[in-house]
Amino acid sequence: MNGEEGGRDEHARANQTALMQRAETYFGKLEARCEEILVEVKESAQLLADADTDPYKRSYLQFKSAIIAQFTSIIQKGSDTFQNQIMSKANSLEMMQVSQLFNEWQSKVVGMMTHAFDDVMERDLEKEYTEIMEEYEAARNAFHCKQCGAKLQLAQFYFTATYLTCEFCQTQNTFDPGSKARMIEHIARPLAESRCKVEYEAYRYRKSEVGQKKATADYEKYVQAMIAQMDSILPGMEEQHRNFYNRLMNDYNNWAVPW
Q: Residue 2, exposed/middle/buried by CB under 10 A (0-12, 13-18, 19+)?
């Protein structure tokens, strides 16, 4: 059976025009290069993301941008060749065949580019938050008055260096929560969003069924859940979070459906 299929493939290729054979070879080589890029992503991306200690993952994102640029360049090269060198030499029958070949190739390569980084965990926000809180607790437990040595209590969460007065000798002391704690402002919202995926998916499903206006209550439920998480992640900022809630709901309610 395999011999028959192989014979049919050889017969079909023998009936192809020289132009189609060259086009298949050309796009096959470009696809092979894309496969090599995917191997590079699989072998290196997660290692780079894990090793990049920058909170914004700038080194990793540079690598990601470079990979996307390579894919984009290949897609552009294939498109230019198809338009300027292949189609211009094709007869009517070849135009149909090579167009199908190009469309299938382009769809496959775009898919490779789009999903190349799907399995890479760029940031583990829960891990980052745990590390922040561990550093913060260590700083809080070690916070004593520099004058009388009394153990100083913190009435709220401080994510920046703050002057606090000793209740026993009135000496001003500087509480430094640590370098990681200073980043908590930047991860509060994305971490809260990641903890509210169930509410967000419920809103998205409802919106797809009834439209945005009628899904307002579901969106509000999601935003309320997110704000509650932000209050938990970053205590002492409840007023700011409430203002953020009001802004989100105002933007949602004033959203205009385009023509």
A: exposed
Query: Is 239:228 a contact under the CB 8 Å cutoff?
Result: no
Return d(Cα 57, Cα 43) in angstroms, integer: 18
CB crowding 171-210: b at 16 or more within 10 Å, else e: eebebebbebbebbeebbbebbbbbbeebbebbeebbeee
d(CA 90, CA 128): 57
Whose CA is closest to 142, among 176, 165, 183? Answer: 176
φ, ψ dihedrals at 116, nearest 5°: -60, -35
Q: Encoding tokens for residue 217?
A: 């209550």
Collect all residues with Cβ–Cβ distance below 8 Å to 90 and sequence separation of at least 6: 19, 98
Centre a 10 Å sphere on the Cβ of residue 55 and count the other Cβ atoms it contains: 14
Fill in the amino acid letter for 100.
Q
Positive or negative CA dihedral for 239, 240, 241, 246? positive
Predicted confidence band at 9 (pLDDT cuts at 50, 70, 90)? very low
Task: Tell me which amino acid residue 98 is.
Answer: V
Q: Check residue 151 and report its DSSP letter.
A: B
Confidence of residue 57 (pLDDT cuts 50, 70, 90): confident
Is the Cβ–Cβ distance between 175 and 159 less than 8 Å?
no
- In 3D space, the residue among 31, 41, 36, 22 whose CA is nearest the CA of residue 106 turns out to be 31
For 166-176, write each residue's pLDDT tens digit.
999 999 999 99
